[in-house]
Each structure stands twice: as structure tokens, then as C-alpha cells.
Write a structure and sequence with these properties.
- There is one protein chain.
- By secondary structure, the chain is of the alpha/beta class.
- The protein has a single domain, classed as Rossmann fold, CATH 3.40.50.
- Helices cover 45% and strands 20% of the residues.
- It contains six helices and seven strands, in the order βαβαβαβααβαββ.
- The chain has a seven-stranded mixed sheet, sandwiched between helices.
- Helix 5 runs parallel beside helix 6.
- The longest helix is centred in the middle third of the chain and has 21 residues.
Length: 182
């Protein structure tokens, strides 16, 4: 089976691109890793509603942080959207934003489990993530931690992916055949 990483900035079109790659398929499971109710944030809830409206009605939708569990059981195609909200959800659930050493341990362990799931799944997988490398360095320790953690996670997923697509300004660059940083 194939793994495709789709990365890009916020509002770049990366989710739409991943959905388009699966557009003609019927056996699709969409794994939404963000808080399903928007966490009480009205603007975030509107973003989630737009994502829901765009998805074909025949797709299965799971709102969960157990991405590895879904991949272990999946057949067909799985879209994971997105790794940034997955990391955020892991830390929120564990209450670790103020303990970044424990947060690192949690995300490192979850990354190994995700890597193993991506390399053994029987499904084709499209993984959506935010590219954090173009933003200014965050002003807070937790913000810098998040940028670093997501950057490392993205690099790990790219290392096991068959294809890597970078979406910027609504355009797609296929990075699959480009050199890899050791």
C-alpha cells in the first residue's frame, strides 16, 4: 500500500488536495484529529463545518486521536487530517502543555507507534500536516516546542512515505523524487 504525505501552510489547499487524490474512491475513511466540537471556538467550528460539507457523503468519518488503531484495521484509503491537530490533541488530553519534557516523551512514543502503523497498514494513506518551517520562531516555550515536535514528526512521516506533496498558494509541488536530508 502507499503512503502520501501532503504538507503545506494554513489555508494552502492541502486538505482539499488530499481529498482530491481520494475523490473518485468509494472506500475512504476520513480520520479527523481535531476536537469535533471546535472546543467552544466559533471560528474553529466554522472551519470544521466547511471540511464536513466538502467530504463526499459515502466516506466514513472517524473523529479520533487513535490514528494507529484506525490504520491497523483499515482497508481501502485513509485520509488523516491532520498531524498538527493530532499533536495538539495528544497534549490536550494528557494535560502536558506545561510539562514539555513529558510532552516530548509522549509525542516521541506516539510517533514510533504511528511510524509502525504507516509501514504495516493494508490501506493507502494520505496524511495531511502543517508545514511549520516558514513561520517566525514562536514567542513561547510551548509554541517553540510545538514547531520542533511537528517538524520532527513531519520528517519521520516523509521518511516512510512513498510520495510527498507540498502545497503552497493552492499549487502542488511533488517532492517525492527530491534528495532527503540525512
Amino acid at each position: 500500500m502507499a503512503v502520501t504525505l501532503v504538507t503545506g501552510g494554513i489555508r494552502s489547499g492541502k486538505s482539499r488536495h488530499a481529498e482530491g487524490l481520494a475523490g473518485g474512491l468509494s472506500d475512504v475513511t476520513y480520520v479527523a484529529t481535531g476536537a469535533p466540537d471546535g472546543g467552544g471556538d466559533e471560528e474553529w467550528s466554522r472551519r470544521l463545518a466547511l471540511h464536513r460539507e466538502r467530504r463526499p457523503s459515502g466516506w466514513s468519518v472517524l473523529e479520533t486521536l487513535d490514528v494507529a488503531g484506525v490504520l491497523a484495521a483499515a482497508r481501502g484509503t485513509v485520509i488523516v487530517d491532520c498531524l498538527g491537530t493530532w499533536v495538539t490533541g495528544l497534549l490536550e488530553d494528557a494535560g502536558l502543555w506545561d510539562d514539555l519534557d513529558a510532552a516530548t516523551d509522549l509525542v516521541d512514543a506516539a510517533t514510533v507507534v504511528l511510524r509502525d502503523a504507516l509501514t504495516t497498514t493494508q490501506a493507502d494513506v494520505l496524511v495531511v500536516t502543517n508545514e511549520v518551517g516558514f513561520a517566525p520562531v514562536a514567542a513561547t516555550p510551548s509554541g517553540r516546542w510545538f514547531q520542533d515536535a511537528l517538524g520532527r514528526l513531519n520528517a519521520m512521516v516523509a521518511s516512510v512515505a512513498d510520495r510527498v506533496h507540498f502545497v503552497v498558494a493552492g499549487r502542488v509541488l511533488d517532492l517525492s523524487g527530491t534528495p532527503v536530508v540525512p
